[in-house]
Amino acid sequence: MIAGSQRLDVVAEFIPRYWKKMPMSDATQIVAIDGPAGAGKSTTAKEVARRLGFAFLDTGAMYRAATWWAIDQGINLDDGDALAAHTAAMTLDIEERDSGQVVTVNGQDVSVAIRTPEVTNLIYKLDQNSAIRKQLVELQRRFGEKQPTVAEGRDIGTVVFPKAKCKIYLDASLDTRTNRRARQMRKRGQAYDWDTLRAEVHERDEQSKNRADSPLRKADDAFLLDSTDMSWDETVDAVVRHAQEVL
Ligand code: DC
Q: Ligand 1 atom closest to Cα of 207?
């Protein structure tokens, strides 16, 4: 585990490439966006970051990358200690390019592989693991301490950046979120059955909300934004407006 922790420092060294274009200024400027699967957090957060000139941190991609790596390495997903040790030894790099986000694990581009249903449906094996959460939260905090950041995930306003001045809980109805996931999968050329997808989104809601460590919940001081009947543009505008008011 000690060797693994040192390895995690190496991982952190790679992270700066992720924000290389961003200004190094007020570290307290964090926009924390949480919410359930399919609420549109990633696309919204990325555009909000662009509009505010902040860095963008997709924490879900980190849990996805760790899950992909564990599957790829044939780790027993029910062995929590082995999972944590392997995550600590992972070299993770997430880079925002004009063409999109590029996620590499040990130099291998896994940007597409981390979005497969197999990975999505097995993340709960890792995201309930407190040792893994600790490792990834540490990286996320270091990222946010270095520059103004829009971070999105499930525990950003409650655990990662509890002192963030701007917290948003982005929600939408289950059907709307299923439709958004379906649209994403169509774009990626992935096959799906709508009812199965809806059941999976619901299942992930339950897993995120009911886990013992860092369950998904709205922070008391978070602004609740229900985007069920809002366009993406309207959602981005609302978040940017709120950020400009409170930051
Ligand atoms: O946002 P996403 O679908 O890419 O996230 C993938 C999974 O990672 C999600 O099912 C829950 C987990 N996750 C988490 O536990 N904490 C975070 N801060 C971000 C994601």
A: 10
Q: Can you read off the two tokens belonging to residue 106?
A: 């040990």
Q: Structural domains in the chain?
A: 10-236 (3.40.50.300)
Closest to 67 measured CA to CA, from 138, 131, 118: 118
Residue of higher predicted confidence among 14 and 44: 44
Question: How many percent of the chain have pLDDT more than 70?
Answer: 89
CA distance 86 to 226: 37
**Residue range 123-176, pLDDT digits in tens:** 999 999 999 999 999 999 999 999 999 999 999 999 999 999 999 999 999 999
DSSP state string for 59-104 = HHHHHHHHHHHHHHTT--TT-HHHHHHHHHT--EEEEEETTEEEEE
State in Å: Cα 185 to ligand 1 middle: 17
Contact partners, residue 118, CB within 8 Å, separation at least 6 = 71
Kindly list the distances between the CA atom of residue 218 and the CA atoms of 10, 76, 132, 156, 167, in Å, as whole numbers in the listed order.
33, 33, 22, 10, 9
- Mean pLDDT, all residues of the chain: 90
Pocket lining: 64 vs ligand 1, CB cutoff 6 Å: yes
Position in ligand 1 atom list of the atom nearest CA 38: 3
CA of 245 to the centre of ligand 1 (A): 28
pLDDT in tens, 44-64: 999 999 999 999 999 999 999
